[in-house]
Amino acid sequence: MRHDKQVSKFMKGNFNNIINGDKAVLVDFHAVWCQPCKVQAPIIKEVAAALSDKLRVIKIDVDANRIVSTRYHISAVPTLALFKKGEIVWRESGLLSKNQLITALNKFL
User: Fold this and answer.
1) Which residues are catalytic?
2) In the list 63, 74, 89, 97, which could disulfide-bond 69, CB 3.0-4.6 Å?
3) What confidence tier does 8 reach under pLDDT thresholds 50, 70, 90?
């Protein structure tokens, strides 16, 4: 348990630095046991490649990073959140196709 707390504190510091940067950040809140998350993962990789000039993508395991997932009230996985300058500008839970995700993100990029 102590190790998890240390990982969470470390991730929280890095997480804040990442989401407060100049580039938009898509956060994939997921869990290793989550089957829909496994389906969403390759779609997110494709979107990350397609929008790499406008967007950074990171994955947050909600079980390993409870502080961050609690802070943003993540109660379902997968949940995707788009941050700009530290603020959530878009958020969606559940599976999204590549086209749905790119369409949603482009409104904010």
Assistant:
1) 34, 37
2) 74
3) very low
